[in-house]
Specification:
single chain; alpha/beta; Rossmann fold; binds adenosine-5'-triphosphate; binds iron/sulfur cluster; binds magnesium ion
């Protein structure tokens, strides 16, 4: 697959982004507030019309990085640059204006749509948020075009969310995201809550939209097969850090980080016994409240040496366009 980033400047770029949350511990009265470094100095550039996959175990910071990259959360450190503008430095008002070019589609369409709003209300509200004076006739034409894009009939306009299937609801959530002609969409596990047949339809729809509209996507997912189908490049996160970033074929055929290899071996193995294991790794995932020193992965890595527990490896280019955060060439 051609990587559009090879010939273009980034559309959106996270530069050394960290995001720290205050997290109450179970016995907060005794131990007080503790902090989670949900994202730890992550850098990621996405080109126009490029789809970058973001994978990793639950809680590793994928959604947080996605939310920071569309300006829904401010980073605790680092910056996000969109079309050359540093979003981190903008006032709330200017950030809101820039955000119309960036949208998010969530995992669960049932909870992301207001149950009292018809499809017409939902999409109209999204359009009006940025084009408050759009004439009625233009609005009607926009509504029809959006429904057509997501493969739903005009009769859907009068429906409420509970009158739609889960797949139809996700199509509406996608139409709502497209309503402002965004240039960048974060799709946060957009097919995870759908049955297998509907998943395939929505993945097909996203692939068509990507081709036809030239929108850039950050596609967050656990399903590596879908990531392989949709994405040009893939980033792998582990406890807040990006540990590998590569063109999709290089990542799937020649992964270099031991964590990526374990993730792939478990999920893509033809052996159903291996597939049943969520991740073929030694030991439990460490607590994000108290990540291991040095390379976060060292307690679970069978290649770990003394150096790994002392020093965290930086991302380095191990092959053209293929970045890996490991001290060794494995
Ligand atoms: N608003 C918040 N307040 C406190 N902690 C948070 C908040 N949002 C996320 N976290 C913590 O930050 C870490 C990363 O969470 P995040 O939701 O980004 O992970 P994720 O990779 O998207 O996980 P999943 O695959 O389960 O969706 C987790 O430890 C989570 O508990
Ligand atoms: S730096 Fe060490 S612990 Fe980390 S992935 Fe590489 S070999 Fe494993
Ligand atoms: Mg998430």
């Amino acid at each position: 697959m051609v990587d559009p980033l090879a010939s273009a400047a980034p559309l959106v770029e996270a530069r050394e982004v960290s995001k720290i949350f205050a997290a109450k511990s179970g016995i907060s009265a005794l131990s007080g507030t503790r902090y989670v470094r949900a994202v730890d100095r992550a850098s990621l550039a996405i080109g126009p019309a490029e789809t970058v996959g973001l994978v990793g175990e639950s809680g590793c910071g994928k959604s947080t990085l996605g939310r920071v990259m569309i300006g829904l959360e401010r980073p605790s450190a680092g910056s996000v640059v969109f079309e050359g503008v540093n979003l981190t430095a903008l006032s709330a008002h200017r950030l809101r204006r820039s955000r119309r070019h960036m949208q998010i589609v969530f995992q669960d369409p049932a909870s992301s749509l207001d149950p009292r709003y018809t499809v017409r209300d939902t999409i109209t509200e999204a359009i009006r948020a940025h084009h408050s004076r759009l004439p009625r006739r233009k609005l009607a034409a926009n509504l029809a075009a959006l429904l057509d894009m997501v493969g739903l009939p005009l009769t859907s306009l009068s429906r409420l969310p509970h009158e739609l299937s889960n797949g139809e609801r996700q199509r509406i959530a996608i139409a709502r995201a497209l309503a402002v002609a965004p240039r960048f969409i974060v799709a946060d596990e957009p097919v995870a809550s759908l049955d297998v047949a509907t998943q395939a339809q929505i993945v097909g729809l996203l692939a068509d939209l990507q081709r036809e509209l030239g929108v850039a996507f950050l596609f967050i997912a656990h399903d590596l097969e879908v990531v392989r189908f949709l994405c040009h490049r893939v980033a792998v996160m582990y406890l807040g850090r990006i540990v590998e970033l590569a063109p999709v074929d290089a990542l799937f055929d020649r992964s270099r980080h031991p964590y990526t290899r374990a993730l792939m071996a478990a999920v893509l193995s033809p052996d159903p016994d291996l597939r049943r294991e969520p991740v073929l790794l030694h030991g439990d995932p460490p607590s994000p409240l108290d990540p291991p020193k040095g390379c976060h992965f060292h307690p679970r890595c069978r290649h770990a040496q003394v150096r790994c527990s002392l020093l965290g490896p930086d991302l380095r280019e191990a092959a053209p366009g293929h970045l890996v955060a490991c001290h060794f060439d494995l």
